[in-house]
Structure formats: structure tokens, C-alpha cells
Amino acid sequence: MVKTKRIWWVNTNPKGWDDWKKFGNEKKVQEFFPGQPLTNYKNILVEDIVLICLNGDIGEIRHIGKIKEGYHKNNDGENCITVEAVHTLDTPIQKKNLVEIRKLKAAEPFRMGIRQKSLLKLSENEWSIIREIILSKNPGIGKILATLEGGKMEQTEENIYVLNDQVKKDTERINESFERLKNEGRIEFITFHPSYSYEEFIEGITIKEQKDLETDAAIGKEQPYFRKDGVFKRFCARALADLIGSNKKKWYEIWEDFIKFKNNNKDWKNKLKENSNSKKYLMIIDEINRGDISKIFGELITLLENDKRISAKNELTVKLPYTNNDFGVPPNVYILGTMNSADRSIALIDVALRRRFGFWEMKPNLDKLREDFEIKENSLFWKSIFKLQKINQEILKKEELGKDKEVGHAFFYAMDGQKDKAILLIWTSEIFPLLEEYYFGEFIELEKMFQGTAIYDKDRKSLTRNEIDVEKWLNQP
């Protein structure tokens, strides 16, 4: 194997942060002036890869670049290197997350601490770990890194797995539509959690921001609290305003316009229904089963029903407790809740919620991977699909697990533009630990499943995974 291009880590100087924040967008080339250790600057070569880390309260890898010109004097006679922008990460990689990885603790960027203007070297193994993390957090960057590493020649050709063009076009179209509707205020995305409350979702009383408290204090006001509309109430306000053509923002003002709309239109219900078809609003609630439904929705759970909406046959409105506003749910508001059936909390889902929502099961579909990716027969990806089908068959047979615990195909969609190493990482860092959780304490059964890549230690009553044998395991029938 021929040596890989060298990888360098740059800690930027705070004085130059404004320039580095523009790097990759407004600025394509940036000069970097020497810090420590100086020998690294003198050893750097054109086309070497550079990770740009912006330090501060949260140090993070923000950009990836390459060396355009090595150690030289610029037009002002100053020694420097010139870095060319290649890519700005959509999801920067925080340094604090990297330093926790045992195999990176001895790496120069972490061993030497944060030194501004420092140029630090990464070994091939250290880069391999960081590279996989970058790939997992930034889908679609695989081809960029593969091109950047063009000097990396291997004795055997390694597979690169790529999503087919149609899937990419469909994904791009969906993302564009989502962003457009989100900017128009017609899509809202929230996540429920155990401490999520009625006050956040519908309305409540909260404390004012510091600047407002200071303004009030200046004019002698001593009331630090105010009534605040929650995310669902604000969302319904936008939906109702769109239906009746109101330009108001606050719920009570829109409701007053709605009353006028009813009084001025004898056929107001049909007009609302006509408008509802073209002016739909969607609220997506992720992890809907993790919230306390009765606490979050309160009396409004009844209003979600189709026949209780505004203009419906059995229309219902309620008086809200904090503002005393009349409130109803517009007919053009839709709620899409997502949940993972593998989550134990699904069994505790509020019965009232079950009655008011339809349910669609999203089963693992490993054949979809074959449709969406360009996968060569007998590649590690190809073999992974067969191996996962076999594992899911065993999970289905086990009474304590069953269909809700099957391993899904979503793990592998981060593979776009990646190589076999990423396949191995998915197994060792994501799927294997999940299986160990499913079969907790059942070491003999796990040992059989892993077919020699895991060894049961009878004395310690534990399982030891030998990660370097995963490729061998995938090649076993």
C-alpha cells in the first residue's frame, strides 16, 4: 500500500476568525501564518489535506481544505502556507467529542492541547477514525473526500457505494419542498420528551427575556412574567389566518377576524373546506410516544378529531386557561407523529392518542438498499444485507423480541460515497452494540450469532468483540 496523503490539523488564530468563517464561501484561498511546531510548516506539501478547526468556547472542525502552496514568503515577505477551500461541513465536528475517543488521545491536536496558529499532524489511523465520524455526520461528503485523497493507491480496488441518481434527485426535491414550506410557516417540526409540557405546546406563563426586564425596570414596571402562546397555538394561528385571509399574527386577533368571516359569509363552512384543500399545514412531532400526552395536550386532545375541528359537523371550541381565549383546531392542520416501535415506551402510549391517530408500520426493507444503491455482488455491502436478513429472522423467532426489534435498513443510508471501512464501522459501533443490548446476558447465543468474532469469557461472564474480524464474519455463510 502506497502512503496516503498527509493530513494536517490547523488551530486558527482568534484574530483571523472572521476570515476563516468566510472560508469556503466568500473566500476560496487563505494564507496561514506559522505557529508551532515550526517543523510541521516546513514539511508540508502541496495537495496535503487540512482540517480547519475554529477554536473558542467550542472548538470544532468547520472546513476541509488542501495545501495550495507550501511554506513560502508571500508578497509582504512573510512566511506562510496557502490553504485552498474544498468543503465546509454542514455539521461541524466538535473537538470535545473527538478527545473522548481512546484511540485519539495520543493524537497531536489533543495531546498538545489548544494552541492558536498551530499546525498539527494526524497519523493515517487517526485520520481514518475522524474521517468516518465526518462521513457519518455529513452524508454525501464521501465523494469529496475520495477525490481529495486521490493520492491514496491500494493494491486492491476498494468498493465505493453510491446512491443512484434518481434517489438523490427525489431526496433533493423533498428537501427543497420541506425547506420552502418551512420558510412559509406551513411545516413545523418538534420533538416530544418526558419534560415537554402544556405550557410549551399550547400556552403558559413564562419569564421575560433579560432585555425586556431591563426595559421594564427603566420605566418602573415590576412584572417579570407574561403569557406566552405555545408552538401548537402559534401554528394553528397561522393556519387559520391563511384560511380566512387575515394578516394578523396573534391568536385572539385572528379569532376576531374569524368571527367576522363567519358573520359575513353564510356559506362560510364550505368556503373553509375549499380553502383547506390548497392551504394545508403539517406539524411533525418526532418521538411522540416519549411525551406525557395528557399533560401536553390537556383538554385539546378532543379537538384533534376530524368531526370536532372548526367548521366540522360536531365543531368544538374551548376556553384556554391562561388567556381565556376561545380556541379550536383549524381543518387544514395535520399532525404527523413518529415513534420507534423498538422503544419500550410505545407500550405506554396514551389510549386517547391511539384512538385519534391512524398508524402506519414502517418495516425494515433491506431490498430497498439494493434498489437505492449501486452495490456489486459479493461486496461487503451485499453480504451485509444477507447477514442482516439472517439476524432479523432470528430476532423474529425470539418471543421476547419479535418484529418490533428487527434491525432496520436506515443504518446503511449514511454509506453514500463511502467505502468498505464504513461498512465495518456500522457493524462494530452501531449494530453489534444494539444486538448485545437485545441479547443482554445471553452470551452463548451471541457467540453463535457472531460466529467466532465474539468470544465468551466464562470466568468474567462477558463477551469480547474482536472488531478486526468483522470482515471475516461477513464472508461467512
Overview of the structural elements:
The protein is of the alpha+beta class and 477 residues long. The protein is built from 19 helices and 18 strands. The chain has 3 domains: 7-156, ph1033 like domains (ph1033 like fold), CATH 3.10.590.10; 192-356, no CATH class; 366-474, no CATH class. It has helices at residues 17-22, 38-43, 95-99, 108-111, 124-137, 142-148, 165-183, 198-201, 210-218, 231-244, 251-264, 268-278, 293-297, 351-356, 366-372, 380-397, 420-438, 443-450, 470-474; strands at residues 7-11, 29-32, 49-54, 60-73, 79-94, 118-122, 160-163, 187-191, 203-207, 225-229, 281-286, 318-319, 326-327, 333-337, 373-374, 418-419, 454-457, 462-465. The strands form 6 sheets. A 6-stranded mixed β-sheet has the order 2-5-4-3-1-6. The protein has a 3-stranded antiparallel β-sheet with strand order 15-7-16. Helix 10 runs parallel beside helix 11 (251-264) and helix 15 (366-372) packs antiparallel against helix 16. It starts with 6 loop residues before the first strand and ends with a helix.
Q: Which descriptors apply to this entry?
A:
three-stranded antiparallel β-sheet, 19 helices, 477 residues, globular, alpha+beta, six-stranded mixed β-sheet, 3 domains, ph1033 like fold
Domain module count: 3
Q: What proportion of the residues is helical, as a percent range?
A: 25-40%
**Major sheet characteristics:** 6 strands, mixed
Whole-number mean pLDDT: 79
**Shape by Cα distribution:** globular
- CA-CA gap between termini: 29 Å
- Structural class of the secondary structure composition? alpha+beta
Number of strands: 18
The share of residues in extended strands comes to 15-25%
Instruction: Give the strand order, joined by hyphens, for the main sheet.
Output: 2-5-4-3-1-6
Unreliably modeled segments: 151-156
Rg over CA atoms, rounded to whole Å, is: 28 Å
Number of helices: 19
